[in-house]
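Can't paste images in this forum, so I'm doing it all in text. The chain is below; anyone willing to post the predicted structure tokens underneath?
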Amino acid sequence: MTPTSSTHAGRGTGWVVVQFALMAALLMAGPVYRATWSGGWTWPLAGALLAIGAWAGILGKRDLGAQRTPYVAPKDDGCLVTTGIYARVRHPLYLGVITLGFSWALLWRSGPALALAALQIPFLDLKARREEHCLRERYAGYAGYARRVKRFIPGLY
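Text version of the structure:
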């Protein structure tokens, strides 16, 4: 069996478990440790991040369709998607998770939730890099696609 085979361990179950644990901790930290700072300035920023995260997540889910998987390895019968939002950003679903995490933390004005939202950035960057390794192995055109399209922020990163 290859590292990208259909076994759960080979597909990246550990990455999924850690991601969902981070997300659950962030969701709980908001209301549990709410209002650790004052100020209404967080509402407009949280609203903007909420809109960006929802937009990225909805378009990412729509455009990826049946190819979507929480694992780092693509589905065995999958194909490379480079259209729609994927023509602008390689990992819109991760972008959505990151921006929604910050939005949640800001809405609750929670320092611990903000720290967990920030922790998602390096974690999802590492997960994306591992996923990209698998995609390069599976799809001949992935390297060229990765040179043209940024990982999380169109035109920047």
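Residues 1-5 have pLDDT under 50 and may be disordered. The longest helix spans residues 111-138.
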